[in-house]
Amino acid sequence: MPFRASVPPILREMQALRALGVWRLMLQALVTGGITGAVIGLFRQAYTLINAAVVDYLHGHSLSDPLVGASIFIALILLGLLAWQLLRHEPLISGSGIPQVELTVAGHLPMRWVTVIWAKFAGTLISLTGGLSVGREGPCIQMGAAVGCGVCRIWHDDKAQTMPRYLIGGSVAGLTAAFGAPAAGLCFAFEEMKTVISGPMLLFTALAAASAWFVIEVLFGFGRVFPFQNTDTLSLLQWWIVPLLGGMAGLLGAVYNAVLIRLTHWADRSPLMPQPVRVLAPFLISGLLLYCYPQVLVGFGVSALDLENPALPLGALLLLLAVKILFSCVSFASGVAGGLLMPMLLGGALAGGCAASALLSLDCIGPDQTATLLILCMAGLFASTVRAPLTGAALLVEMTGSLHNAPAIIVTGYLAALTANRLESPPVYDSLKQRAVDQEKARQAGIDQAAASAAAP
Questions:
Q1: Can you tell me the distance from the alpha carbon of 180 to that of 342, in angstroms, rounded to the nearest whole number?
Q2: Chain segment 264-294, per-residue pLDDT in tens
Q3: Which pairs count as long-range contacts for 65-73, CB under 8 Å and 24+ apart, including other chains?
């Protein structure tokens, strides 16, 4: 028995998967992916409607009107207070959720699946509505894992915490639904989550991804996230640009990780940042940016698609890149529900825009190759930050439909990851895992202490 207790959960899962019937396994995967796709589809639809309503309201009113300004900051304060209350109710929804899912798969954290689904759904919508520079992909992965944990109840599986197939399948479906990228979802499971590859697990995750993709693409009708118009390939004589962009993205990823982790740890430990102040701060900063520098806010500033035909000079792009990265780090360090990848991808696009602007001025590339550089830098920054180059390459190919640029995308990603490794920059999610464990231990210690105090005569 002591030997069985030491077996990692994922290996016990492999044994359980082999004992299942194929049809049962397939049905579980389809249900997990389908429900996850529905939840994430509703989330994406809600965000689209809310963001459009907020942008329309602000475009239809003068920001110089004191009443409009007061209404904006009152709304931001209320959103910040709601975000704080949700974090108090369920601390596991803090941040992207990917470190929490990986720790749950390893058996180190619980999965309070009902609370996580609704609290992460609401908390991420609140963060995005408040203009914070956070993403939806991590929350979608965590919600997908929570859905998978809930689906296991249909089969009355009381060992869900040690049966990672539901968690991994739900995570794959969540990433697929967030970006419409099933291949990237599979790569994420086996590259980032370090899932042991086996026939049953590959079948389960593939079917979960396929059913989530069907719900998102066919039923909800979401298209590609980055439908660039022109993505001409680099000629053989232009391939010197690939290692240049890989090295640049690797350096930027190392800087991004260092700023993000140090700022987050400072906020964790600083007596100047109690949780209410810490959560409210980025909402108020978002309001100030709306007046001072709206270009950095979603719906008001430059999107990745806008950079295909950039109207900003190189200096303005560099400033926008610096402010975007800093605001993304501040938003994440606040602890609100929200991911890293979409802001990171926009940061990569801005870095690619800077490179394209410089190379265009030197006649090294043509205008139709601008989007190609954006894609390469997005893949490179993802790879250097997360240290999952294959996932990043699959993600960018699927999000842009740029299959013909796959070789350059893959090489750029691996060179960026190699550069970040040589700079001794740890992967961002590895750095965040220990923080998630420490936070859960502190929470449990507080609960135990309160229970002991209540029981004391």
A1: 14
A2: 989 888 888 888 999 999 999 999 999 999 9
A3: 69/291, 72/287, 72/290, 73/284, 73/287
Q: What is the pTM of this model?
A: 0.89
To which H or E segment does residue 53 belong? helix 22-59
246 and 415 Cβ atoms separated by less than 8 Å: yes
What's the rounded Cα separation, in Å, for the pair 72 and 188?
38
Q: What is the DSSP string of 12-52?
A: HHHHHHHHS-HHHHHHHHHHHHHHHHHHHHHHHHHHHHHHH
Alpha-helical runs (H) found in 272-405: 275-292, 314-333, 341-361, 370-386, 389-400
Show the CA angle centred on residue 78, arms to residues 77 and 83, nearest 5°.
Answer: 95
Q: What is the pLDDT of residue 159?
A: 60
Name residue 167's amino acid: L
Helix axes 428-455, 241-269, angle to 10 degrees: 20
Question: Could you tell me which residues are beta bridge partners of residue 339?
Answer: 135
Nearest CA-CA partner of 220 in 42, 53, 395:
42
- Using CA atoms, how far apart are residues 249 and 216, in angstroms rounded to an integer? 31
Q: Position 138: which residue type? A: G
